[in-house]
Amino acid sequence: MTNRQRVVVGLSGGVDSAVSAYLLKQQGYEVIGIFMKNWEDDDNSEYCSSNIDFVDAASVADVLGIEIEHVNFAAEYKDRVFAEFLREYQAGRTPNPDILCNAEIKFKAFLDHAMRLGAEKIATGHYARVRERNGAFELLKGLDPLKDQSYFLHRLNQAQLSKTLFPVGELPKTEVRRIAAEIGLPNAKKKDSTGICFIGERPFRDFLNRYISKEPGPIKEPNGRTIGQHVGLSFYTLGQRQGLGIGGIRAKGAQKGGNEHEPWFVARKDMEKNTLWVVQGHDHPWLLSPTLQAQDASWVAGVPPTAGALAAKTRYRQADAPCSFEAAGDADFALSFSEPQWAVTPGQSAVLYDGDVCLGGGVIQ
After folding, report:
1. pTM surpassing 0.70?
2. Nearest alpha-carbon partner for 282 in 302, 297, 263, 257
3. Listing from the earlier edge strand, what are the strands of the sheet with 275-280?
4. Does domain 286-364 match CATH 2.40.30.10?
5. Which CATH number fits domain 213-282: 2.30.30.280, 3.40.50.1820, 3.40.50.300, 2.60.40.10?
6. Over the stretch 269-324, which tens digit does the pLDDT of each residue have?
7. Are 323 and 312 within 8 A, CB to CB?
8. Which residues are known catalytic residues?
């Protein structure tokens, strides 16, 4: 291939980005690796794996015979992602920092940096695909349905997609692991990272405690009875079942389906009265929403889709739910679902699909 286009790959230390770099090199690109450091507040802690990840990324670059550069985006991350994350939590919503990180860091700060290095394109290890049609770019789901990450990428725009490659988006994860083992990558068996970059695997409540003031208040059930005390509304999310401190274990010998022993779920947060409302049973009406409103929408095509039948996800790990879409201006929209959706959570993203095409989405109100 005479086309020695320069592609800068975000090497995270994980197997997906490592195999992405390998595939691009096979395709004849000039590949440069960049390791992004996005967090440094407590880098030496057991939970922050940034140093280990850099060592893994560097050894991958070594095996592949590519250069790697260590770039620190911690200041941008703190300003653009973390500050917003805390603001949302403080307001009682549940934001998704991975979506913000993609929009503000990986496909903005990192993309700008790569362009300064003379790159034509950037690449990441996300499971998604880009398709060009009639001069416009579409974001498609990754081919592995269990790994598709288009939900987290829905805020990307035309300019960003035109410069982005997702080499593993066409492959199932099993194949990615197989390639990694075959070419002798040192991280071929490394387990997938979960969790948010700045939290890692640490207990979430401990982490938030350091940044958010706690104001305990009552936990109430639908008929108004107070049945416990919460530690601060920011620490709970709708649909949450664990860590409520109000029990819900079925008593010995109780009949299955006996109401008094069904588990409790967080159903509402009243910020004004500092009250946490909980309900019993997974399918309680308070947990089901036939409609939702979203704001701050971002559309891959640059304009909202036309009103009508589409599908949406209101959380990452869920099947597409058929819905009817209606835009209210460029940045707000309403969805009505054929089946009510469970625990629709303010601050999370409602992401719209037309088949395999991810159209964009907005923040649930």
Report:
1. yes
2. 263
3. 226-230, 217-220, 275-280, 264-270
4. yes
5. 2.30.30.280
6. 999 999 999 999 999 999 999 999 999 999 999 999 999 999 999 999 999 999 99
7. yes
8. 101, 197
